[in-house]
Amino acid sequence: MKHSIVLLPGDGIGPEIVAQARGVLEAVASRFGHDFSFSSHRIGGIAIDETGDPLPAETVDACRSASAILLGAVGGPRWDDPSAKTRPEAGLLRIRKELGLFANLRPIKLFDELADASPLRADIVQGTDILFFRELTGGVYFGESGSSGEGEDETAFQSMTYSRREIKRIVRMAATAARERSNRLTSVDKANVLEPSRLWRRVAAEVMTEEFPDVQYDVVLVDAMAMHLINRPADFDVVVTGNLFGDILTDEASMLPGSLGMLPSASLGESGPGLYEPIHGSAPDIAGKGIANPLATILAAAMMLRHSLSLHAEADAIETAVAGVLADGLRTADLARGDSEAISCEAMGAAVVKKIAG
Ligand code: NAI
Ligand code: MG
Known about the structure:
It contains 12 helices and 12 strands. The chain has helices spanning 14-32, 45-51, 57-64, 88-98, 122-125, 164-179, 195-211, 222-231, 243-254, 295-307, 312-327, 345-357, and strands at residues 2-10, 35-40, 68-73, 103-109, 129-135, 145-148, 155-158, 184-189, 216-221, 238-241, 264-268, 274-278. The chain is globular.
């Protein structure tokens, strides 16, 4: 079967890391006998430079008809002029909206070989492997807002809203993913205080009882979850939560592995192509030097195979290859410690390709 993959390299280190991820996907295609076709399109700063628009219509069209999308990163100091009409990040926000991507997936997996990079003690973080599902298009970030009054009475508000439909679809998606992992799902809310959280808790329980009775399910309050992530992160498997709580908890959790260059993410909608990317930015400080860590983007490509193309063995093969190169002691500069010598972005990509080829 033919899969058409749209590449959006973007700015800074984006083109370097996406090139390595593409090489890895080509290695998967040849080992497993798949037909992946690639086309590259503009997004972010480079799209502003060349077309005046951070998300040209041509890019949107290509994305809509793709099987899946792999993005590098957008932005950089060159486009930071506050008087500019448009910013690179606007392209990213718009593509998520255009494609109806309501679920943000963030796996937080600690590779044993990198346990010493974590700010937490190795005996606490060892074994951490969490998959977050953050609701991305609802909640307080999109609620009604306004302000009124003057002086000491100046007041502002922003309301948190969730509908039954919005809650159901993300809980279903997370529970389905839990079935493919350790069959455990934790829903995080603030139902002791917030009305939309009470609805969230009720609807989530309904979905779990009626559709996923086989999945072990529990609920945790968001403030308690913030503590558990530091105290016993290895106890969680799949976690589902709303937009605001997910924003904060996933950033907190992203610090657990201790290296930004290792963390992928995905944004998915009900149907249509998913968008896969590293969680880090365009790293303008190291762009063009050939020293960026491509593993987050390579792991994002693995997520793409698993969640958009249902190629599970192929996704596993990439993740095993990444663990393998780390076990061999290969490190890009961001991961290198002490006397260990760092390898280039390209060399890291090539090492993963070699493992996959076997
Ligand atoms: P950043 O993630 O780009 O960089 C933070 C630090 O981590 C830098 O020292 C960088 O060199 C390092 N780093 C990041 N990724 C790395 C990798 N793969 N290998 C080795 N080192 C890596 O965040 P920063 O500096 O706050 O933002 C830079 C630009 O990226 C800004 O324009 C920002 O708006 C944009 N950005 C874009 C995102 C996206 O496209 N999704 C997400 C976050 C930031
Ligand atoms: Mg955030």
